[in-house]
Design brief:
This protein is mainly α and 208 residues long. Helix content is 79%, strand content 0%.
């Protein structure tokens, strides 16, 4: 049996799914950009448009919340979930912006690896969120959350190795500063994905 809700509550699930798909779109764009780096200005414009779409969804949910008598789950968790999704997109957008600001011309391998992990994590989150409509899918949702946590741990390891390599070549201070920040923003995106997964985990426990 699925979660019981009033007709207006369906909109929350619709918005969550739109937000997670929007995040996947952003992750695909960034992975493609880093795999075949060119036309950074066009990519930045596209990720900015995606980020603005995410902001609109956040606005729609926060506007709907006070108008809804019965929500599908705790209203605080609803806000935490949509903010975690939005924060993931914000850090991804910030990483692309730094590539433009620092006039990067060549992408380092750890950045490509982090982008791949972000896309994997965003895809797992998207599938987890789509499973929230039906309580019978709780076990599958939990599996997606486990994968998100694993991806975040892998991101930590990629980040650590990337920073060690930067320190080993710290004779180029500008390269050290700009890539340290880019790596951190990409890794933070995996952290925010894990935050979203943690919210979903709490929702599953509360509605078991």
């Amino acid at each position: 049996m699925g979660f019981k809700f009033l007709p207006t509550e369906v909109k929350f699930f619709d918005y969550f799914e739109r937000a997670s798909q929007n995040l996947v779109d952003g992750a695909v764009l960034v992975k493609n950009l880093l795999d075949d780096f060119h036309d950074i200005d066009e990519a930045q414009a596209k990720i900015t448009e995606i980020e603005h779409s995410g902001d609109y969804i956040v606005h729609e949910i926060t506007t709907l919340l006070p108008k809804t008598l019965i929500t599908p789950f705790d209203s605080d968790e609803i806000q935490r979930l949509i903010f975690a999704i939005d924060d993931s997109l914000d850090t991804l957008h910030a990483a692309v912006t730094r590539l433009s600001i620092y006039q990067v011309t060549e992408i380092k391998k750890p950045a490509r690896r982090l982008a791949a992990l972000i896309l994997e994590g965003a895809t797992e989150l998207d599938m987890a969120i789509k499973g929230l409509r039906d309580k019978k899918l709780s076990e599958q949702v939990k599996e997606h959350i486990v994968q998100i946590n694993t991806i975040e741990n892998n991101g930590d390891r990629v980040m650590e190795d990337a920073l060690r390599n930067l320190v080993a070549r710290r004779d180029d201070f500008f390269e050290f500063v700009c890539w340290k920040e880019i790596y951190e923003l990409l890794e933070q995106t995996t952290d925010r994905l894990e935050d979203a997964g943690d919210v979903i985990q709490r929702v599953l426990i509360a509605n078991a």
